[in-house]
Amino acid sequence: MDGASWREWTSEDRHRIRVIAAQRRRGEGLGGGVFSHMSAAVLWGLPLARCEPERVHVSGAATNGHVRAGEPAVARHEVTVAEQDIAVVDGMRCTSLPRTIADVLRSASEETGISLLDAALRAVASGEGLGAHDETAVEELREEVARHLHPGARGVRRARALLDLGDARAHLPGESISRLYLRHIGFAPPRLQVPIDGPRGTRYFADFGLDDAGVWGEFDGRAKYLDPAVRGTDVDVEAALLAEKEREDWIRGTTGRRVVRWGGQDIRDAGTLRARLAAFRVFPRAQR
Length: 288
Fold this sequence. Notes:
Elements: H1 3-8, H2 11-26, E1 34-35, H3 37-43, E2 56-60, E3 74-78, E4 86-89, E5 92-95, H4 97-107, H5 110-124, H6 135-146, H7 156-165, H8 173-185, E6 191-197, E7 203-210, E8 215-220, H9 223-226, H10 228-231, H11 237-255, E9 258-263, H12 270-279
Parallel strand pairs: 2-3, 8-9
Antiparallel strand pairs: 1-2, 4-5, 6-7, 7-8
Helix pairs in contact: 3-4, 4-5, 4-6, 5-7, 5-8, 8-12
């Protein structure tokens, strides 16, 4: 691919291209292994927040064999992958969804792990609409992931903590990372996608109910206003901004709570989000 085309793709799409290239180079066998970790994640359509691996991940009991010149670099994990933990996605053999999630939670950063987990839980939820999801399906997937987190394995303690934190109601990686940092800062677990009755029978949803601080929290990604696929192809930027202002005015006026907003630049790390919230005099209860 030429450089300009490559840069237009998302990090997930670029890694998927690497996986396809590895499949074509190495054939069906892949040295006895299957695609795993973040390489399996992109096949399952999951996000890789703050992560763009250059190596394709393959797992199996016998994954040795050399990489030919020009072949994408391959990270081989010599571990057993049971037959029930293997799936075929778009014609490519990879680890099952629960095994993939467990592997990423153990090996990737907290930010990458929680974003991927939330997206996977959301994907299995069958409910329609912002506030609805099938809690049974969500808990079943959570239990299946937990079965792959074996005591004593590297990264298991952190993976279990993230698994407990995972929530299908987060809609964007930015929301997932925000929730992770709110926990690190010391806020009580926020309510997510809180329904608020709007005018004329409508319903609004607040991203975060920060009840210990008595405010609503909103993560504003740029796509909310600038990406037609997100804001709606028949809605221009001015209309999207006006609608958001009317929404916020209604929420503040009817609930008596402030709405505090932050964006991607405010979640570079937990300290950056803490400073943003502190500027608005928003603190965890223990720090007030």
